[in-house]
TrEMBL record, chain A:
One of its GO terms (biological process) is peptide transport. Keywords: Membrane, Signal, Transmembrane, Transmembrane helix. It comes from the Bacteria. GO terms for molecular function: peptide transmembrane transporter activity. CDD domains: PBP2_NikA_DppA_OppA_like_18. This is Peptide ABC transporter substrate-binding protein. GO terms for cellular component: ATP-binding cassette (ABC) transporter complex; outer membrane-bounded periplasmic space. The chain crosses the membrane at residues 685-705. It comes from Pseudothauera rhizosphaerae. Residues 163-582 form the Solute-binding protein family domain. Residues 1-22 form the signal peptide.
Automatic annotation (TrEMBL), chain B:
It comes from the Bacteria. Residues 110-314 form the ABC transmembrane type-1 domain. CDD domains: TM_PBP2. GO terms for biological process: transmembrane transport. The lineage of its organism: Bacteria, Pseudomonadati, Pseudomonadota, Betaproteobacteria, Rhodocyclales. This is ABC transporter permease. Keywords: Cell membrane, Membrane, Transmembrane, Transmembrane helix, Transport. It comes from Pseudothauera rhizosphaerae. Belongs to the binding-protein-dependent transport system permease family.
Length: 720, 325
């Protein structure tokens, strides 16, 4: 029996393993045009009205098509047509008169975005579109018995499609106000689209009466209207030029009411058949397998419109081979398989075995993947180069900073004289915290020290000498050099704390860092910070609390020094400079200005800058705003993280750029090269099995011999 | 025996209510409904109104334990505690914060967890008992000495080392099995070989030592001498008589963990990419998903109590002298 079972298992094992024994994928997938990648965090929401995180974007942006998208190759980032043409924007004053493009923002009463949807776009095949011969929906009014054997949308026998219409975009905008969906951007958009709040009140009332699906087409949303089958119009209150960037996000992608109604039927939610689990779109891919605990699979949408691969980009793209597929129809890859990897070690090893086509570089495998030249340049290690692996790097549109709570009497000041002294104290700390060393030690150099809130590559960020923070750096030998600790000590003395002691009382200066465990307060980092402060004679205390209490401290203004970060939603300096706008004060207005910084001139300039088009005038205002921040130092500007990504030589057309998220349609895989590499890198080594068996035999043999001796021995011999 | 089981089940009810209450209190001390709402809505654009709406929608706007504004039984039932915790006694776990059905998730994840836990349990038990009996057989010889040394060495090494080392050696260097992953059906076998093997090896050292101690105590009993005097071979003496008589302490440690096999193993599931229940709880704690945490704690408590009852029942099977009254 045992022998039979063993034979069966061996046969099953070898059958499954057909190629390399350690191939984690089914044999049926071998040689197919599939991209293999991994995800670490399970997506929480795939409903385009709720989804707002990077973990989800990697799936959702391939499935749904917002009206606009970013050009894949051009930098700085440039908007282009997605599922709709670039909108025409008309602005009107309070009397309804059309204003010129350069009219000041304060004169703008309404901004009208007229958006024309590209004709002929079809939705992915979906049961919600399936029709009976009489034209009625095939899967409506389903009984529980009809759903008994259903586990995914693929279990419905019939599917259908239809053309994308302007009404689908309007339907989705109404969903932002749905009381059961809790869209994360509802409040923000409602500021400019006041009809949204009124709609939410109506929907909340209706939801009480009707516990099931709510037909949003019955409700009007003032400010959003369908003009014709392929055109819709959004009327915003005032001027909000950044709204156009929101049109690149799934919040504004089309949702067909049929799909919403289909998933709203009783019994669907219990089977995880919801829009949140199975998004419906017109994008290049559709979700065909959704098991966020193990594997997510996207398959090519057979109805995709097939836009063309771009023919131009930024300098260097042609040399990098990024223009070789110019004009070819997208997407190139048939399926994308995402496997969940919670731990970095298996993820990394499977990448090295060729089972993942691309990987990030974590601190654990940094030394194995990357080496630094004597000039400090980052290059691939020899092992990686031999495998044909390529390294892609890009500075993320993000910033991490140490913020000072300006409401704190010590670092913010409470009198005019106190504020001036506090400013010098903040400047001294900004100089003393050697962020170059921090980036080098804790990030393996994967970051660019920040001079101000705007990351390099975004409009407003200057390069070279003009771009440095003159309070913290000086321009020396053609590069920024951090000012010495002597400057910091001088500023500290001017702040009333010579050598870290109160000039009057002799009391020691104590700076408290409020943080969460595992954040900046972990042992190595807090030791490093303490050393930086010690150099000034300042005592440093870490006050670590859990995330909820930390947030509470921030909301109530009870923090002193804190570490935070921000990823830009869109490539506009407004999305970073607003973090220090007075009207965003965390304590007063529950906004994003966690430092509670307030400067009248800065606020005025911000209001002016945010509605201006990019150009010299806007740059001049940004320069002034940046100078104010550098002088006031409400943050010790930390660093802009640098994303490192590795890809195998058989993957083509990958270009880093965090803002561009719908990237899979551009990528291409040389399947034959991958198969060859996998076979070469994963030849099973069989001798260890023989060695293990021999070792076992070696262990068993004396035992058997002993047992035989024991059994043959007389009682007297056993006693001996 | 029936009356005994019923009595134990009735005793379980206040224990489970207590566990529920404790979980509820501990969770709510560090994690208020406002915190949950903020976590769910995201820190970026969550407003006070948005948080309030979320709480109303999820039933977190009610009083915690006592609703003075309600009438009759509603004072007790129209509360967060009743709504979120007590209905679990009907195994109605409700939805996770992301709206997904917890019961369905548990059913889906139970299979992969059991696929690792059951073979690990059976093979581990078989290996540990066999090795322990062999060590007893070879007691006071160099085989026994080096066997114990090997067991001490094996139990001194972290299971993380076995996992990382095993993945590196077997999957990466020898390329014999996939490093991680999971597939349903028979294809799961090639993903399970390594985690099961590693789990057995990681646990066998301490188990062998424990069982060896039990068997050594048994081997000096009179009935063993009698069995030998009858002319039985040493293997028959050990595997038939000693093993049977040592079952009470073995069952005490073993039966209680059988129901817990459903709960899965966090470390093994994480490193081998197995979508089981072990990681479900940790994911829920990280995401502050109280609904999932309380469901998993409740199931853990129920399974533990069931394990204890089964242990008691198993005593009657191996020792006729034991009577449950």
């Amino acid at each position: 029996m045992i022998r039979r079972l063993g034979t069966f298992l061996l046969v099953a094992f070898l059958t499954a393993c057909g190629g390399a024994w350690n191939d984690p994928y089914p044999a049926a997938e071998r040689g197919r045009n599939i991209l293999y990648t991994a995800f670490t965090e399970r997506p929480k929401h795939l409903d385009p009205v709720q989804s707002y995180s990077e973990d989800e974007a990697v799936f959702l942006y391939q499935i749904v098509e917002p009206p606009l998208e970013y050009h894949y190759l051009r930098r700085p980032y440039q908007l282009r047509s997605g599922s709709a043409e670039l909108p025409t924007v008309r602005r009107y004053d309070a009397e309804g008169r059309l204003l010129a493009d350069d009219a000041p923002a304060e004169r703008v009463a309404t901004s009208v975005y007229e958006i024309r949807v590209l004709p002929g776009i079809l939705y992915q095949p979906h049961p919600a579109f399936a029709r009976r011969p009489d034209g009625s929906p095939r899967y409506l009014d389903l009984r529980p018995a009809d759903l008994a054997a259903v586990r995914g949308v693929g279990d419905f026998a019939e599917t259908g499609t239809r053309e994308l219409e302007a009404a689908d975009f309007v339907y989705q905008i109404k969903r932002l106000a749905h009381p059961r969906l809790h869209s994360p951007i509802f409040e923000l958009i409602a500021e400019y689209l006041p009809g949204l709040k009124a709609l939410q009140t109506q929907l909340a009332e209706a939801a009480k009466q009707e516990p099931g699906w709510l037909d949003l087409t019955r409700f009007e949303l003032p400010g959003v209207e369908v003009v014709d089958r392929h055109t819709y119009r959004i009327t915003l209150q005032g001027s909000y030029p950044q709204f156009i960037y929101w049109l690149t996000m799934p919040f504004f992608s089309p949702v067909p009411p049929e799909a919403d109604r289909f998933f709203g039927q009783p019994g669907m939610a219990e089977r995880n058949l919801t829009l949140d689990w199975w998004p419906v779109g017109t994008g290049p891919y559709m979700l065909v397998e959704n098991n966020p605990n193990a594997r997510m699979v996207l398959a090519r949408n057979p109805h995709y419109r097939g836009d063309a691969y771009p023919c131009d980009g930024e300098p260097g793209d042609a040399e990098a081979g990024l223009l070789a597929d110019c004009g070819k129809a997208l997407p190139f890859i048939e399926r994308v398989v995402f496997t969940r990897e919670r731990e970095g070690i298996p993820y990394w090893n499977k990448f090295l075995q060729g089972y993942y086509d691309a990987s990030g570089v974590s601190s654990d495998n940094f030394d194995q993947a990357v080496s630094l030249t004597s000039q400090g340049e980052v290059t691939l290690s020899d092992d990686m180069t031999e495998r044909g692996i390529r390294l892609l790097t890009s500075v993320s549109p993000s910033i991490f900073y140490l913020g000072f709570n300006m409401l704190d009497p010590l670092v913010g000041g409470d009198t005019a004289e106190g504020k001036e002294k506090a400013r010098k104290l903040r400047q001294a700390i900004s100089i003393a915290l050697d962020m170059e060393e921090f980036v080098s030690i804790f990030l393996n150099g994967r970051g660019v020290t920040a001079m101000h809130p705007i990351p390099p590559g975004l409009f407003g960020a200057r390069e070279g000498e003009a771009g440095i923070n003159p309070v913290v750096y000086e321009w020396r030998d053609g590069r920024p050099a951090r000012r010495g600790k002597d400057v910091a000590r001088r500023l500290l003395a001017e702040a009333g704390w010579p050598n870290g002691r109160n000039a009057q009382t002799g009391e020691a200066l104590i700076i408290n860092l409020d943080t969460t465990p595992g954040g900046l307060g972990d042992k190595a980092r807090s030791d490093w910070l303490a050393k930086q402060f010690r150099d000034l004679g300042v005592q440093f205390v870490v006050r670590a609390t859990d995330w909820n209490r930390f947030q509470e401290k921030m909301r109530t203004g009870n923090a002193q020094l804190f570490f935070m970060g921000w990823n830009a939603d869109y490539p506009d300096p407004e999305n970073l400079l607003f973090l220090l706008h007075g009207a965003q004060g965390k304590v007063k207005y529950s906004g994003q200005n966690a430092a509670n910084y307030h400067n009248d001139e800065y606020d005025r300039l911000f209001e002016q800058m945010k509605t201006m088009p990019d150009g010299p005038a806007r740059q001049a205002i940004i320069d002034r705003m940046v100078a104010i921040l550098q002088h006031d130092a409400p943050w010790a500007f930390g660093f802009h993280p640098k994303a490192y990504s590795l890809q195998h030589g058989w993957v083509y057309n990958r270009k880093p750029g965090v803002i561009v998220r719908g990237t899979l349609k551009y990528q291409r895989v040389d399947v034959a090269a991958r198969e060859a590499a996998r076979a070469a890198w994963n030849r099973p080594v069989l001798w260890p099995i023989a060695v293990v068996l021999a070792l076992l035999a070696a262990m068993v043999a004396p035992a058997v011999a002993h047992w035989r001796r024991h059994e043959r021995a007389t009682a007297a011999e056993v006693q001996r | 025996m029936f009356a005994y089981v019923v009595r134990r089940l009735i005793y379980a009810v206040p224990i489970l209510i207590g566990v529920n209450l404790l979980t509820f209190l501990l969770f709510f001390v560090v994690n208020s409904p406002d915190d949950m709402a903020r976590m769910h809505l995201g820190a970026r654009h969550a407003s006070a109104e948005g948080i309030e709406r979320w709480k109303v929608e999820r039933g977190y706007d009610k009083p915690t334990f006592w609703n003075a504004e309600a009438d009759g039984a509603g004072r007790l039932t129209d509360t967060i505690f009743f709504d979120k915790s007590l209905r679990m006694f009907a195994f109605d776990f409700g939805s996770a914060d992301d709206g997904r059905d917890i019961g369905r998730e548990i059913r889906d994840r139970m299979g992969p967890s059991l696929a690792i836990a059951v073979p690990t349990f059976i093979l581990g038990l078989f290996a540990a008992v066999s090795f322990a009996l062999l060590l007893v057989f070879f007691r006071a010889t160099y085989l026994d000495f080096w066997g114990v040394v090997a067991c001490v060495a094996m139990m001194s090494i972290s299971s993380l080392f076995y996992i990382i080392g095993g993945q590196w050696l077997v999957s990466k260097i020898w390329a014999l099995v996939p490093i991680s992953g999971y597939a349903p059906g028979l294809d799961a076998a090639r993903f399970l070989v390594l985690p099961v093997l590693i789990s057995v090896i990681a646990g066998v050292g301490s188990s062998v030592r424990w069982y060896r101690t039990i068997f050594l105590e048994e081997i000096s009993r009179d009935y063993v001498r009698t069995a030998r005097a009858k002319g039985l071979s040493e293997l028959v003496v050990l595997f038939r008589h000693v093993l049977k008589n040592a079952m009470i302490p073995i069952l005490t440690g073993v039966v209680v963990v059988i129901p817990m096999l459903f709960m899965g193993s966090l470390l093994v599931e994480s490193f081998f990419g197995v979508p089981g229940l072990g990681s479900y709880t940790i994911d829920a704690i990280s995401a502050q998903d109280f609904a999932v945490v309380r469901a998993m704690v409740f199931i853990g408590s129920v399974l533990y109590i069931v394990g204890l009852i089964l242990t008691d029942l198993s005593y009657t099977l191996v020792d006729p002298r034991v009577r449950l009254e």
